[in-house]
Design brief:
Blueprint (H helix, E strand, L loop, with lengths): L8 E8 L5 E6 L5 E6 L4 E5 L7 E3 L2 E3 L6 E6 L3 E7 L1 H8 L10 E3 H4 L6 H6 L4 H19 L8 H9 L4 H8 L3 H12 L3 H23 L4 H8 L4 H12 L3 H7 L6
Helix pairs in contact: 1-4, 5-6, 8-9
């Protein structure tokens, strides 16, 4: 990954939804902006629990969201997936993350300069070639929009929210009022400070669960405590509300992992 992209790109990888006529993946709540580019045919995405929300996208961009989405890809189930930090939306795509929060849009509408990226990627013969192409396009976006990246001390704002468990605590670290913090975070990222901390806590628990489950069996009480939840019951309630699964059900659905 080029050093210039490191502050803005969280992950860039190939994906495969699996064998069969239709690969299905549940996209979990996220504190990042995600871009999914299927290798061949368009992707169908709908919000879990929202009938009629399913749409087709040649390449999809999803903002920060607190609900789960279902991604379905027929026949060829491969593609490229990348996630951007909230600051990456402005620095690489040219618009604040708040413009995408809770929404899914086509990449061509969000970043017209990248409209031909799906076709260009389909013509590549290897993953290193695809990765290099995506990185070049992101660097071109950074050259156009990078001046948005440091506005209003947003990096410090995200760090304060990620490193604390209460909004008041983050506001004190930043030397501002809770009202000012709320206004800034809503305006730039499209979620409240409390919602952002909720997403960070959720993602921390997800990482801990997967890492522990791959080594054996994971204690959910320990995951809850290490991720900032009040207790295991709190963890379970949040996971059911945000994903439609309990933690145990989700681990099993992810490939036979157990808690």
């Amino acid at each position: 990954m080029p050093a210039a992209l490191a502050p803005f790109v969280v992950a860039l990888s190939a994906y495969d939804l699996g064998p069969g006529l239709a690969g299905v993946h549940r996209g979990l709540p996220s504190s990042t902006v995600s871009i999914t580019i299927p290798e061949e045919e368009p992707l169908e995405i709908g919000w879990v629990g929202r009938p009629g929300s399913r749409e087709r996208f040649r390449a999809a961009v999803a903002g920060l969201h607190l609900s789960a989405a279902e991604l379905r890809q027929e026949r060829c189930t491969r593609g490229v997936w990348l996630t951007l930090s909230p600051l990456g939306a402005g620095a690489l795509l040219g618009l604040p993350a708040s413009a995408l929060a809770g929404e899914i849009a086509d990449l061509a509408d969000v970043a017209p300069a990248m409209a031909d990226l799906p076709e260009r990627l389909a013509a590549c013969r290897s993953w290193p070639e695809r990765r290099a192409l995506v990185e070049r396009r992101l660097l071109a976006g950074l050259a156009r929009h990078g001046d948005r990246a440091g506005r209003h001390g947003l990096r410090a704002t995200l760090a304060a929210l990620s490193g604390t468990t209460r909004v008041e605590e983050a506001a004190r670290l930043l030397g501002c009022s809770r009202r000012h913090l709320s206004s800034t975070v809503r305006g730039e990222f499209g979620v409240t400070p409390k919602e952002y901390q909720r997403l960070v806590r959720f993602e921390s628990a997800r990482g801990r669960m997967v890492a522990a489950a791959r080594k054996g069996r994971v204690g959910l009480a320990a995951v809850a405590a290490g991720s900032g939840f009040a207790d295991q019951a709190h963890l379970t309630r949040e996971w059911r509300a945000m994903t439609g699964y309990t933690p145990t059900e989700w681990l099993r659905a992810e490939g036979g992992l157990t808690a």
